[in-house]
Every structure is written in structure tokens, then in C-alpha cells.
Amino acid sequence: MTDQAFPSNAATADKSADRRRSQRVQIVMPVIVRGTSGGQPFQENTSTVMVNANGCMLMLKASVLKGHQVSLVNPATTEELPCRVVFHGRRAEGKTEVGLEFAEASPLFWRINFPPEDWNAAERKRPDSSSRPNLPKAAPPKR
User: For 2-68, where are the E strands, in sequence order?
Assistant: First the structure.
């Protein structure tokens, strides 16, 4: 991941899409970040904004520097992986957008299925009325 791995503006995202090593999935998943901030250890419960096989973007209250080493815990599995801070983005409500890169690619950490490389959300099929089965209509309630 580079600083462009988790850009916060759409124009930059389009330019960096060709450099991306894995599909990004916008998903809110609870995580725990452990590390040190100002020489003091911290542990913060937060949620992801986006994930991929190489890391995630999340909002963090703790102050961490680019290059800083932290650990990311998936509370659903208790799996803990070392990460490096690779991106700082916008600040909102006392938190900073932070991109984390796993020490090595770990797509199974998230326990989700990533979409295929050629997947385009805009082309996703949505059910229409013609694809719905003909179900009997419910009888009106008796009085």
C-alpha cells in the first residue's frame, strides 16, 4: 500500500485504481487497534471504513504517525496482525482517517469474500418484478 491506497477524494481514487494490489470493499467491521501513541500504550475499539487483502482504512482517535507500527485485532476471531500506518486523511469528530497495511497480505483476516477483479458495482444486477416468483396473495384478515 502506498499513501494513495486509501485516498479520501474520488478523483485521486480513480487515478490510483490501476496501482491497487487488491479489491477494496467498503464495509463497516469492528476492529481493535493496539499500539503506542506519545510513548503510551493504547487500545482503541473502532470500525473499518474500507478493507482489502492488504489492510484497511479506519477512523482513529489515537494519534499515530505514518510508518508507525500497530496491531489490528479482528474481535470476531481474536486474530491479531501487525500493521504499518501508511495514510493519514481527513479529520472528523475527533478522529482521523488512517490507512493501515498488513505486514503481509492477509485476505482471510476479514472473513469475507472479495469481489472479482472485473466486478463493477454500477453493473450489479438488481432484482426486478419479472424475476420474482409468483406467490399467492395473502388473504385479507378476518373480522
Answer: 25-26, 30-37, 40-52, 55-60
Measured distance CA(133)–CA(135) in Å, rounded? 6
The secondary element (H helix, E strand) that includes residue 71 is strand 69-74
pLDDT classification of 17: cutoffs 50, 70, 90? very low
> Is 137 part of a structural domain of the chain?
no
Q: Answer whether residue 139 is part of any domain.
A: no
CATH label of the domain that carries residue 74: 2.40.10.220
Overall number of domains in the chain: 1
Q: Which residues span the domain enclosing 64?
A: 3-112
Q: For the segment 50-109, what is each residue's pLDDT rounded down to a tens digit?
A: 999 999 999 999 999 999 999 999 999 999 999 999 999 999 999 999 999 999 999 899
Exposure b/e, 107-141, CB count within 10 A at least 16 = b: bebbeeeeeeeeeeeeeeeeeeeeeeeeeeeeeee
In degrees and rounded to multiples of 5, residue 68 shows phi and psi of: -60, 140
